[in-house]
């Protein structure tokens, strides 16, 4: 299958349906524009409806290296997004991929800082990966600490009227139990297609087990190797049928699925994946 050219998107053939139940976004970090306002025009050129913006690096800092903490920078983002008719669909705390949410001192404050930025920008969803160090399958002893911290974060998010979407190593039934234990409507699952596929689980069954109201947003790609349209283990039309029957609607955010032969070809990889997702979910 051949990717549609950029001119097709610009010409409106794959223009976003304003009232579409599904919208397609890319991630500033993955298009090599982490916390750079130039990510917005690039996302527009790629053909996306929106952008997930990263909160910046973490390292040994007391909180994220977040340029959006500056009111002037925030306004520039909001103005540029409006100009391009793009939405900022979510913020991402990818610094926790390599940090321990369960053990890192001040983790709740870091998430609280993200929530404050969400409030200032009118963003309703944030992505919080529990990461390698927070793998609850390999490290079940961390569960009590993770639950208590997410309960605290959940109260802050509820007060702000936002949702924190977590990504875990658990299967869907495990995530249902985890969410029950946390007990907050503001802590939901940010589902990633790659996780059940890599673990050999049935992707559509995992979606059904979680159900419509536990999934806030979806990273709609697999590991790198081939474009989505060439991925033999990911039947996107079947996925759409499952989501349709569930009554789910929201943002499908493209994370990976880059061609292994040209991993840094941002326009080629993300343009092809965006075009494919729009043919499936917005036709």
Q: How would you write the strand order of the largest sheet?
A: 1-2-3-4-5-6-7-8
* Gross geometry: globular
Tell me the span between the first and last alpha carbons. Answer: 17 Å
Count of the separate structural domains: 1
| Helix/strand order | HEHEHEHEHEHEHHEHEH
Low-confidence spans: 1-16
Q: How much is the radius of gyration in Å?
A: 18 Å
Query: Which range does the strand content fall in?
Result: 15-25%
User: What is the CATH third-level topology name?
Assistant: TIM Barrel
CATH class: Alpha Beta
Fourth-tier CATH superfamily name: Divalent-metal-dependent TIM barrel enzymes
Give a written overview of the molecule.
The chain is an alpha/beta fold and 283 residues long. The chain has one domain: Divalent-metal-dependent TIM barrel enzymes (TIM Barrel, Alpha-Beta Barrel), CATH 3.20.20. Helices cover 40% and strands 15% of the residues. The protein has ten helices and eight strands. It has helices at residues 6-10, 39-46, 71-84, 107-121, 143-160, 172-182, 194-199, 203-210, 236-246, 266-281, and strands spanning 22-27, 50-54, 87-92, 125-129, 163-167, 187-192, 215-219, 250-254. The chain has an eight-stranded parallel beta barrel with strand order 1-2-3-4-5-6-7-8, surrounded by six helices. Helix 4 (107-121) links the parallel strand 3 and strand 4. The longest helix has 18 residues, at 143-160. It is globular. Mean pLDDT is 94; it is low at 1-16.
């Amino acid at each position: 299958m051949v990717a549609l050219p950029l001119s097709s998107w610009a010409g409106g053939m794959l223009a976003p349906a304003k009232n579409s139940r599904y919208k397609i976004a890319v991630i500033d970090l993955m298009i090599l524009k982490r916390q750079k306002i130039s990510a917005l025009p690039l996302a527009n050129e790629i053909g996306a409806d929106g952008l997930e913006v990263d909160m910046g690096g973490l390292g040994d800092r007391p909180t994220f290296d977040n340029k959006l903490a500056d009111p002037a920078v925030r306004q520039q983002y909001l103005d540029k997004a409006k100009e391009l008719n793009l939405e900022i669909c979510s913020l991402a705390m990818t610094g926790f991929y390599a940090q321990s949410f369960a053990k890192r001192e001040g983790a709740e404050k870091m998430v609280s800082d993200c929530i404050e930025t969400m409030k200032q920008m009118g963003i309703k969803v944030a992505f919080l990966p529990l990461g390698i160090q927070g793998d609850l399958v390999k490290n079940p002893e961390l569960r009590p600490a993770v639950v208590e911290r997410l309960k605290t974060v959940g109260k802050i998010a509820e007060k702000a009227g936002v949702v924190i979407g977590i990504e875990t190593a658990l299967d869907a039934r495990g995530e249902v139990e985890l969410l029950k234990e946390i007990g907050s409507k503001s802590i939901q699952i940010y589902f990633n297609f790659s996780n059940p596929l890599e673990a050999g689980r049935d992707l559509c069954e995992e979606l059904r087990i979680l159900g419509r109201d536990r999934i806030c947003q979806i990273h709609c790609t697999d590991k790198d190797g081939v474009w989505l349209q060439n991925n033999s283990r990911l039947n996107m039309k079947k996925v759409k049928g499952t989501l349709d029957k569930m009554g789910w609607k929201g943002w499908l955010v493209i994370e990976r699925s880059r061609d292994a032969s040209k991993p840094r070809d941002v326009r080629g990889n993300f343009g092809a994946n965006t075009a494919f997702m729009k043919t499936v979910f917005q036709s």
